[in-house]
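[recover] target loaded
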């Protein structure tokens, strides 16, 4: 056998090293990618071990709440190569607001999961008995929460995408239009009735699940991702599995996009995307995490519904999200107090007083329309009804605790005692004195005044005198907003001026109806 000279061995070794070195670029199989990921994606770690085995690409996940991660990425914080979020729409809005200083990253959806409502079966039956249709909607859930029929948990939308998508979904449903939310759609908080039923929250889906399991007597429902709730049902951690409800008035869908942050890793990114979206991997993702495959050709797991219903639009303006998040404040979840100042002058007799009484019947729970279910009186809410003519004739306080309160409201408004005079501004001045007493007794409880009149002021003080008195009021009293409702022949200019002077707004019931006018003021502070 011929022996090769030592120089040949050295040459072969050098060639081998060159060949090996040629493959060691940033985009070849031994690449290591750092990925900022939504916290619920921890369940994909075993799958990423298979990705490394098949491609040589190591994916290291650093976890953070989706909303927090989106804010950080929009500011350019961190040194990650990729991001893998449950949803990138909030990030894109933040980048859009930056005026193009930071470009939108390449994004590829990997899997899907809708936000749904998981509820104990007996609670679901209570909700159905309270609803006109067994196919429950977000409006039915809000109605049930306002009536005290359901207590639920939801992740904090200021940190978790599941909470933010819920907020967007139910706020969209509350408008009744099906269109993307506009800033004017969230000028008032119409979700207070729904959130009166929230008893659990957490900064992430995982922490919310842990809190729900540890406090199974404190809540009987969860709002979250379909995959999370189905996985919880099969975990054996619950006393009984939750029934999954896909609200009929629309669902917000998360697509878990993988985003390229560092363009030098484009080749590696493409390989990871190709591996994650191939049929075999899509099937494994579905079987292991119960997220829906992005590939429509993959046969669905029996536990996943074939159809998930109507998809709701995500807002295209950052201002809308900012307003929604500003309204969502668990620390300010104390039920509000509203003072309703209602005109009982002679001109209200007949059809007009009938319309007023019908409006309050609806606010007490009789209005079964989708919007009506969102703006009804809710458990724990306090308010005062005042009837006025030439002076304040009567007033009575109410706290919503059950169906009997609707009867008490009906009785108060049933009187046929009307006055020939209309002291609009004296009545509003009286309401402010009551508001001052309420604020002093309970500074943390928000107070709002809603004034409705159908005629011109012809008794008591005038508008100028009221405005002068308002300016002299204590700061905490002056901070109470008044919303005015014009009906009949009332002076729109005066009502608008008074509303704006107190921080509120005027609604013209003649342009729509008294019922819609009162609905417009619900949730306004």
């Amino acid at each position: 056998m011929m022996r090769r000279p030592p120089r040949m061995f050295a040459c072969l070794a050098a060639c081998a090293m060159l060949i090996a070195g040629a493959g060691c670029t940033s985009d070849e199989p031994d690449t290591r990618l750092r990925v900022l990921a939504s916290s619920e994606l921890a369940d994909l770690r075993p799958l990423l071990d298979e990705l490394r085995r098949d491609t040589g690409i190591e994916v290291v996940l650093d976890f953070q709440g989706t909303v927090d991660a989106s804010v950080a990425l929009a500011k350019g914080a961190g040194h990650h190569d990729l991001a893998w979020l449950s949803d990138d729409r909030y990030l894109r809005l933040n980048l859009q607001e930056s005026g193009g200083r930071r470009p939108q990253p390449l994004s590829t959806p990997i899997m899907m999961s809708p936000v749904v409502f998981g509820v104990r079966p007996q609670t679901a039956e209570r909700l159905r008995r309270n609803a006109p249709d067994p196919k429950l909607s977000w409006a039915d859930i809000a109605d049930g929460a306002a009536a005290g029929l359901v207590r639920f948990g939801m992740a904090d939308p200021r940190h978790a995408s599941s909470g933010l998508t819920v907020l967007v979904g139910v706020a969209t449903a509350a408008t009744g239009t099906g269109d993307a939310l506009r800033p004017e759609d969230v000028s008032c908080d119409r979700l207070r009735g729904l959130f009166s039923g929230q008893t659990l929250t957490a900064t992430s889906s995982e922490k919310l699940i842990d809190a729900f399991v540890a406090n199974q007597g404190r809540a009987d429902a969860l709002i979250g991702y379909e995959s999370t709730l189905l996985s919880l049902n099969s975990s054996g951690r619950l006393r009984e599995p939750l029934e999954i409800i896909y609200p009929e008035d629309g669902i917000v869908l998360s697509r878990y996009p993988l985003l390229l942050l560092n363009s030098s890793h484009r080749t590696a990114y493409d390989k990871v995307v190709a591996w994650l979206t191939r049929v075999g991997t899509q099937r494994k993702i579905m079987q292991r995490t119960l997220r829906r495959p992005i590939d429509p050709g993959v046969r669905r797991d029996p536990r996943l519904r074939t159809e998930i219903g109507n998809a709701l639009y995500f807002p295209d303006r950052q201002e809308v999200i900012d307003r929604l998040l500003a309204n969502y404040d668990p620390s300010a979840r104390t039920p509000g107090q509203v003072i309703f100042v209602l005109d009982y002058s002679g001109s209200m007799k007949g059809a007009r007083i009938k319309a007023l009484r019908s409006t309050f019947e609806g606010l007490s729970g009789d209005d079964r329309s989708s919007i009506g279910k969102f703006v009804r009186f809710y458990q724990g809410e306090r308010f005062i009804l005042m009837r006025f003519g030439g002076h304040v004739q009567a007033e009575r306080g109410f706290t919503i605790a059950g169906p009997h309160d609707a009867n008490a409201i009906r009785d108060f408004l049933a009187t046929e005692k009307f006055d020939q005079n209309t002291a609009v501004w004296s009545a509003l001045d009286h309401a402010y004195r009551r508001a001052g007493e309420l604020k002093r007794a309970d500074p943390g409880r928000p107070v709002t005044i809603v004034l409705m009149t159908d005629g011109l002021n012809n008794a008591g003080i005038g508008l100028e005198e009221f405005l002068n008195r308002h300016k002299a009021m204590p700061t905490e009293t002056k901070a109470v907003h008044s919303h005015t409702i014009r009906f009949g022949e009332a002076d729109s200019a005066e009502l608008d001026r008074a509303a704006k002077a107190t921080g509120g707004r005027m609604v013209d019931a003649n342009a729509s109806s008294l019922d819609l006018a009162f609905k417009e003021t619900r949730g306004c502070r």
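[recover] notes: Confidence is low (pLDDT under 50) at residues 1-29.
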